[in-house]
């Protein structure tokens, strides 16, 4: 559409408007836009008409109604009077929790395996290759089902729970351990921790500046460590215990009390991490291989050791190649967490398109809400990664 | 520009077709030549594929009855297996013409959610299945238990209500489909599995160790299960409703698959039966059907007692007693309005 054509820039006189490429371009854009809007409007009206004819109430009013069903994992409290809106929030948190665990684990495993694939050690490199090939060539749903079934099969029934000192319990209902209960001293404790970190960072900046200015070094690391351990310790001594622990105990059927990590969460997080890690490993490998061999040769010739070369020379340059596809993998992981519905993990899709949709029959609204959450979180991840990418990008002078 | 005009014409045509597609469901069904019926993917006795992959069950027979009424051929049905959470969207969107899938008739579903329930195929109630090794003989003793169920059913609501009113703590694990919930129950993830009592019996016989599991005596809800259609299409609703009633009526008058021809030929038969079989009167016309509609149902599918027996009753592996599903004349709840 630009004037890159070889025609003379000046418009030849006497061209009919319907032959003028510029006019055609503008008119066709307008017509297309009108068409898209028209079809969109028609679809919207069609849905509205059909729902009205079938006597389906529309709108988001149902979110204020009492949900009156229960859910196996709730990060925030709920009771019998909780609304569909709160259930929605619980589902969002469940999705975010498993995605966050998955992203952290997948990144860790992916980087280790990706670097291992390039190792000079034959065995390490081959093991990493086999891992990548096996993981990424099996559908994710199978991974999830495999982990869920194998986790459940391997664990003992409740009656024969594995228990460590009656504090940790492991059985088919998950891992149960003491749950923290916040005491009155919690707030000063947290303030002390934050202060300690702020002070530690300040010391480090000051020490760096002094080092640059005067050449004298300061034991910044040890000072910071002292601050981070010392301040909270002092608060603990003066203000008392910040948290107490609720101990789990054997009930009639289940282990009661404490915090339980349910097997659905464990299986889903493991499957998502291992699966996505295999893709991240390939991205990391490609990123490292994209860095010119001369870079590490130059570093080695300066006498820098292999590990340090990797950390300070190769990976920072490789990150520029790694980050954009890594973002896609994070987004995939977030969206793939919806497969948790298959094993009873109460994430967004399971709750919204499953229970909420069937109980209220507000299919359009329930699915729209779920989509809006995925869209928002995806855009946030994308924005964060783009910001990080911009920071890591090659600075051109 | 040519491409663009083609696009425009295409869009206009598409809009036109979608708008025109809104005649009644009965006409649509007649035009396409078969009934698209939403059924349960695998619930023994209600809807489950047999070893040849053919769907069998009492809910399936309701679909056959509707096809027999419309086409005079009970086989003109195509089945869509639907999980609980898929079923309503499938019906609402027109993917199926009829939902005959052990679905509970509730006020909200009938009024504000866009469906019309046309009758009751099976009067049921929700129960709980537990392993004998648990040593529990009553639902009241399940304080602290973990219960598995299928997501998106009235089951989830009843369960919450029951445990709350009885002041019992519990954990629910809701799965996307019944099979997964049952597998989790078998593996020991849950102490109990809950669904409608009929479903529990159907599930129990499929367990690896049926004798090791018991259905607790408490029935914690009313679950009238029946076919549902989209709200606002009364003609289609009538067809499904009266197809169901024709089978109940036939049982009441002792008309069976075997004797229907004989009775039809009899000159001195009961006038009620004559109207039912289309020998007298024009009841079929009112429904937009052939006058032999009910005859076709009985001849090809059977009466209510017959489909009950062969699918879930004494003549089936489930062996469920008639109970509430006996005819009103036998002390049960099955009752058809008069055929006149």
From TrEMBL, chain A:
Compartment(s) where it occurs, according to its Swiss-Prot or TrEMBL record: Cell inner membrane; Cell membrane
Topology of this chain in the membrane: Multi-pass membrane protein
InterPro entries: AA_ABC_transptr_permease_3TM (IPR010065), ArtM/GltK/GlnP/TcyL/YhdX-like (IPR043429), MetI-like (IPR000515), MetI-like_sf (IPR035906)
Gene3D superfamilies membership: MetI-like (1.10.3720.10)
Keyword Protein transport: no
ABC transmembrane type-1 domain mapped to chain residues: 92-382
GO CC list: ATP-binding cassette (ABC) transporter complex
Superkingdom, natural source: Bacteria
Keywords from the UniProt entry: Amino-acid transport, Cell membrane, Membrane, Transmembrane, Transmembrane helix, Transport
GO terms classed as biological process: amino acid transport
Transmembrane segments: 21-44, 87-116, 186-207, 219-239, 251-275, 366-388
Family the UniProt entry places it in: Belongs to the binding-protein-dependent transport system permease family. HisMQ subfamily.
NCBIfam families membership: HEQRo_perm_3TM
PANTHER family: AMINO-ACID ABC TRANSPORTER PERMEASE PROTEIN YHDX-RELATED, MEMBRANE COMPONENT OF AMINO ACID ABC TRANSPORTER
Full protein name: Amino acid ABC transporter permease
TrEMBL record, chain B:
Signal peptide: 1-23
Entry keywords, A to Z: Signal, Transport
Coiled coil start-end: none
Solute-binding protein family 3/N-terminal domain mapped to chain residues: 34-263
GO biological process: amino acid transport
A Pfam family assignment: SBP_bac_3
Family: Belongs to the bacterial solute-binding protein 3 family.
UniProt name for this protein: Amino acid ABC transporter substrate-binding protein
């Amino acid at each position: 559409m630009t004037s890159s054509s070889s025609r003379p820039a000046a418009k030849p006189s006497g061209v009919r408007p319907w032959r003028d490429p510029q006019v055609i371009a503008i008119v066709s854009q307008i017509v297309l836009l009108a068409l898209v809007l028209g079809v969109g409007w028609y679809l919207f009206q069609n849905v509205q008409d059909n729902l009205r004819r079938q006597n389906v109430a529309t709108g988001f009013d149902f979110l204020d109604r009492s949900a009156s069903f229960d859910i196996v994992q709730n990060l925030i409290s709920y009771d019998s009077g909780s609304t569909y809106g709160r259930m929605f929030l619980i589902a969002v948190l469940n999705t975010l929790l498993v995605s966050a665990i998955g992203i952290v684990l997948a990144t860790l495993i992916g980087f280790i395996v990706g670097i291992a694939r390039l190792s000079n050690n034959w065995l390490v490199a081959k093991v990493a290759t086999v891992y990548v090939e096996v993981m990424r060539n099996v559908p994710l749903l199978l991974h999830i089902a495999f982990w869920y079934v194998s986790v459940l099969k391997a664990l003992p029934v409740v009656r024969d729970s594995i228990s460590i000192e009656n504090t940790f319990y492991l059985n088919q209902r998950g891992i149960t351990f003491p749950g923290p209960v916040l005491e009155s001293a919690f707030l000063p404790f947290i303030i002390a921790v934050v202060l300690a970190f702020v002070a530690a960072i300040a010391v480090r900046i000051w020490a760096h500046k002094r080092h640059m200015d005067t050449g004298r070094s300061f034991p910044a690391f040890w000072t910071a460590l002292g601050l981070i351990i010392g301040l909270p310790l002092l608060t603990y001594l003066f203000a008392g215990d910040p948290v107490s622990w609720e101990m789990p105990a054997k009930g009639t059927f289940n282990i009661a009390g404490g915090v339980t990590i349910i097997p659905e969460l464990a299986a889903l997080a493991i499957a998502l991490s291992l699966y996505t890690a295999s893709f991240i490993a390939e991205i990391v490998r490609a990123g490292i291989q994209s860095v010119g061999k001369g870079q590490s040769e130059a570093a080695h010739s300066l006498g820098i050791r292999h590990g340090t070369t990797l950390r300070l020379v190769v990976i920072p340059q490789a990150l520029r190649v790694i980050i954009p596809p890594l973002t896609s993998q994070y987004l995939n992981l977030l969206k793939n967490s919806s497969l948790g519905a298959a094993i009873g993990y109460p994430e967004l899709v399971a709750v919204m398109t499953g229970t909420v949709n069937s109980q209220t029959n507000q299919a359009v609204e329930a699915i729209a809400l779920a989509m809006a959450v995925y869209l928002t979180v995806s855009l946030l991840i994308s924005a964060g990664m783009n910001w990080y990418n911009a920071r890591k990008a090659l600075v051109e002078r | 520009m040519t491409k663009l005009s083609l696009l425009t014409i295409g869009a206009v045509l598409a809009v036109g077709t979608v708008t025109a597609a809104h005649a009644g469901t009965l006409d649509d069904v007649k035009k396409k030549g078969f009934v698209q019926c939403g059924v349960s993917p695998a619930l023994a006795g209600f809807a489950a594929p047999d070893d040849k992959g053919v769907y069998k069950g009492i809910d399936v027979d309701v679909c056959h009855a509707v096809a027999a009424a419309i086409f005079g051929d009970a086989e003109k049905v195509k089945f869509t297996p639907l999980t609980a959470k898929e079923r309503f969207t499938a019906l609402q969107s027109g993917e199926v013409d009829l939902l005959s899938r052990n679905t509970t008739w509730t006020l909200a579903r009938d009024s504000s959610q866009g469906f019309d329930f046309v009758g009751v195929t099976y009067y049921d109630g929700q129960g709980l299945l537990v392993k004998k090794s648990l040593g529990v003989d009553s639902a009241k003793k399940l304080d602290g238990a973990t219960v598995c169920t299928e997501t998106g059913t009235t089951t989830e609501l009843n369960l919450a209500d029951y445990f709350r009113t009885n002041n019992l703590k519990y954990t629910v694990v809701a799965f996307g489909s019944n099979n997964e919930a049952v597998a989790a129950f078998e593996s020991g993830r849950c102490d109990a599995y809950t669904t409608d009592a009929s479903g529990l019996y159907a599930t129990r016989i499929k367990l690896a160790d049926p004798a090791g599991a018991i259905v607790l005596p408490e029935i914690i809800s009313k679950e009238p299960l029946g076919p549902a259609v989209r709200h606002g299409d009364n003609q289609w609703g009538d067809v499904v409703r009266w197809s169901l009633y024709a089978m109940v009526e036939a049982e009441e008058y002792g008309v069976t698959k075997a004797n229907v021809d004989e009775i039809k030929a009899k000159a001195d038969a009961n006038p009620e039966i004559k109207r039912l079989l289309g020998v007298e009167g024009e009841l079929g016309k009112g429904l937009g059907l052939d006058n032999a509609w009910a005859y076709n149902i009985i001849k090809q599918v059977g009466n209510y007692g017959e489909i009950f027996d062969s699918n879930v009753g004494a003549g089936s592996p489930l062996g469920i007693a008639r109970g509430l599903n006996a005819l009103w004349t036998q002390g049960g709840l099955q009752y058809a309005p008069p055929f006149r």
